[in-house]
Amino acid sequence: xxxxxxxxxxxxxxxxxxxxxxxxxxxxxxxxxxxxxxxxxxxxxxxxxxxxxxxxxxxxxxxxxxxxxxxxxxxxxxxxxxxxxxxxxxxxxxxxxxxxxxxxxxxxxxxxxxxxxxxxxxxxxxxxxxxxxxxxxxxxxxxxxxxxxxxxxxxxxxxxxxxxxxxxxxxxxxxxxxxxxxxxxxxxxxxxxxxxxxxxxxxxxxxxxxxxxxxxxxxxxxxxxxxxxxxxxxxxxxxxxxxxxxxxxxxxxxxxxxxxxxxxxx
Length: 266
Hints:
- With 266 residues, the protein is an alpha+beta fold.
- The protein is built from 7 helices and 9 strands; from the N terminus they run αβαααααββββββββα.
- The strands form 2 sheets. The protein has a 5-stranded antiparallel sheet. It has a 4-stranded antiparallel sheet with strand order 3-8-5-6, with no helix packed on it.
């Protein structure tokens, strides 16, 4: 595939990310990658692979390791190590960073909204000295016939738990930013502690919402994994040669033992 140039993160963009906790990159993913990702998402959903991965995460004793993990799908693996994304993350996270997880879904038009939350995987000691980033990829973009992404700028600076605003559902909050008009292949980069929500539309729609979420963390601390079979995921990434020029990207030493499932998809 032809790699496009990564977006230039000038001083203003970096200041925005530090202060507000997000960056919006319209059309960040090239069309040919999006065209290969979409049928893989269909397979992930229609063949029951996503459901199996959820069952394995919830009850690993019963279901064991799933037969396929997301990054074993060729374009999914390519997305994780997409060169412009890696170069963008180097600016935000530093030269060395580690892959945390990948989620993939084809969200039904009538899927309920997701309440206000953040996704920072904070250890028991409450330390937030290291940065975690979620990159939210919208393969077909966002429009008036899909649920929107809503973020609360600056909320990543609060010392608050993931569900501190969950009681508000998807209510409109002062200062929120609604992202509901993005072209295909757009990516939203979030500081993982930024509160955000998925807000449904108030009209009928038959358009599914193709969504992927890949997450990365600064090295120098140990991060809680979100799936009990996290070692298998990292092992498969290394076996497939993903990120071969980035030895820390799939290194197990950057993680604690699994304590329980968390996180969600926006």
